[in-house]
Amino acid sequence: MGGKSKFQDYQHEFSKMLTWSYLKGLVVNPAQLPFAALLLIITELVINVLVVERVPYTEIDWKAYMQECEGFLNGTLDYSQLRGDTGPLVYPAGFVYIYSLFYYLTGQGENIRLAQYIFIGIYLLQLCLVLRIYIKTKKVPPYVLVITILTSYRIHSIYVLRLFNDPIAVLFLYAALNFFMDSKWYLGSIFYSLGVSVKMNILLYAPALFFFYLTNLGFKGTIIQLFICGAIQLVLGLPFLISSPVAYLKGSFDIGRVFNHTWTVNYRFLDVDVFENKCFHLSLLAIHILLLIIFIPMCVKYFNSYCRLKFVQKQVQPQIDAKNIENKRKSKIKKDLKKKLNKKNEEQENLSKEQKDFLNSFEVMLQKSSQKGNKVAKKPVEVVEEDPHYSINFDILSQLFILPMFIVNFIGVMCARSLHYQFYSWYFHSLPYLLWSNNFSVIVRFLLLALIEMCWNTYPSTDLTSALLHVCHIIVLYGIYRKISVELNMASKLE
């Protein structure tokens, strides 16, 4: 009976998967993203392998990375003395350790093909973490992610043809976001700090993360998490800090570094003198701070809602689990009792053929007399009682955490003094989420995605593409601001 019941369940599930509504949901329903996510990861594996095997590798920074790490491996701990063909080392200690490992694995950096396959692994791991966020938040339809991720030429180039350190920093960041969603604060802080130790751009998330700490953990808990982040930076940088602290801090965390206008994606339309002017840099910083002042209060309201609902989850979830356990126990008792009754019936003496015929005819006679004119089934209908299973999907609460984090990072990218091509990885995977967090039509959303991708794919950048990138960014941010403002106003009226 048990095997038959399971077979019927499987048959029911399979027939359900063949329905039009289910198949349509695989394309448009964010709740059915896991299936599309699996196919997407498999497809990305094939695409990246084909890219590595068929598209020529272009040297940009890999050789310089190896030269910088070679100096460290030879015993040099003075950051001012660690240099490559592109100039001095400008990344924190975590970068040095990770790329020193690559130095050994790839035969002093000579085995480029092996390095590319390592970066395929990095890309697929990051993609798994990104898709897990989208699965939990249930915000973006599967077809959007499939189209956006598979068609980005620039992202595939950054990860497997250029071997930049930006993807590694972003990998740690997405790991941290996943840990924070699961309320694993210590692991989240550790991985966030590891991301900062590879490249400083991860600090763009810091304003939102600070208030997220404060809302959920209070002042004391926030101090503990900040101490963990700082301690990791101290431990990783300790050899260099002991040798030459000023050189390390100036080299790895130089916020005043002047970027080369040659590689800029977002400010090609400016003259070099204006681009390198300190007043221009200070103006961007002022705009950055102003935008944070506008958006942080909104983010805090989201974090407060997240914190309250998480508290409700902690109160309700144990009751739900206890009820399901009780239902499961009762179900087991019923099944055991049914098995005993069946066994008892089997042990009874078999009736003779004449006795069975008599009982069957007697049963038919009773049925006809009790319900005159009604058709009587020859066999009784077997009623299968399904045990109730109670659940509340709290994963969607992650929207209240992820959106503020992506917004604050997006503001940082908008106000960056210069964006180089590899910086696209800083926010590419968050763009679908940001665009589906506003009230634009689907056509406008895809148009913005296409225009942003075009701007990043134009090399060298032009006055038009640089200006267009800013226009697209402003439209995206304004759309988010308008939607959040409406939602918060409605929520305040309901309260």
From TrEMBL:
It is a multi-pass membrane protein. The keyword Protein biosynthesis does not apply. Its EC number is 2.4.1.258. Keywords: Coiled coil, Endoplasmic reticulum, Glycosyltransferase, Membrane, Transferase, Transmembrane, Transmembrane helix. It catalyses: an alpha-D-Man-(1->2)-alpha-D-Man-(1->2)-alpha-D-Man-(1->3)-[alpha-D-Man-(1->6)]-beta-D-Man-(1->4)-beta-D-GlcNAc-(1->4)-alpha-D-GlcNAc-diphospho-di-trans,poly-cis-dolichol + a di-trans,poly-cis-dolichyl beta-D-mannosyl phosphate = an alpha-D-Man-(1->2)-alpha-D-Man-(1->2)-alpha-D-Man-(1->3)-[alpha-D-Man-(1->3)-alpha-D-Man-(1->6)]-beta-D-Man-(1->4)-beta-D-GlcNAc-(1->4)-alpha-D-GlcNAc-diphospho-di-trans,poly-cis-dolichol + a di-trans,poly-cis-dolichyl phosphate + H(+). Pathway: Protein modification; protein glycosylation. Pfam families: ALG3 (PF05208). One of its GO terms (cellular component) is endoplasmic reticulum membrane. It comes from the Eukaryota. Residues 327-357 form a coiled coil. PANTHER family: DOL-P-MAN:MAN(5)GLCNAC(2)-PP-DOL ALPHA-1,3-MANNOSYLTRANSFERASE, NOT56 - RELATED. This is dolichyl-P-Man:Man5GlcNAc2-PP-dolichol alpha-1,3-mannosyltransferase. The lineage of its organism: Eukaryota, Metazoa, Ecdysozoa, Arthropoda, Hexapoda. The gene is LOC113492747.
